[in-house]
Amino acid sequence: MVTEAGWLKDHVRDIPDFPEPGVTFKDITPLLGNEEAFRFCIDALVDQLGGRSVDRVLGIEARGFILAAPIAYRLGVGFVPVRKAGKLPWEVEKEEYVLEYGTDLLEIHGDAVHPGEQVLIVDDVLATGGTAAAAVRLVEKLGGRVAGIGFALELAFLEGRSRLEGHRVTSLLGYE
Ligand code: AMP
Question: What is d(CA 27, CA 24) in angstroms, rounded to the nearest whole number?
Fold first, then answer.
């Protein structure tokens, strides 16, 4: 966790019982809509995740795209989308991930990462870690290496980090 980032919590809105009863949804749209908060968030993630060789930044649909694209721009590298099933138009690799009820698929274009490339994975929220773990497997399927994994928020009580063991994981805001 990045201690100086604590003020960003004022720009995260809790939505109780969304999208279903019992879930408190962390709405980052106020953070994205505030120029200082958005810039701080991107710069802090670049500070945390940069500093080692990175060839591409991968964003997970949909809110991960919003954070990953400016990070890629700042690092001067390309952006790679990982999308839900059926959205990418070309040849894909797929990985299943577990939802609360059932499973779903994440996809990546087969040529989006080249063997040996160092890839940063970015998403808005680390919850159980299943989504990010599927993104790790997609990168590794294509022969890439995971240079780091970054989130704006981490729901630490769900212990998602335990599913990302062996990787450098960063988040700006932790929730217990
Ligand atoms: P998980 O695979 O459980 O780590 O879930 C992570 C994905 O689900 C991320 O793409 C998040 O955008 C989304 N997500 C999970 N829980 C929440 C939450 N409480 N608030 C906002 N987004 C969430």
Answer: 9
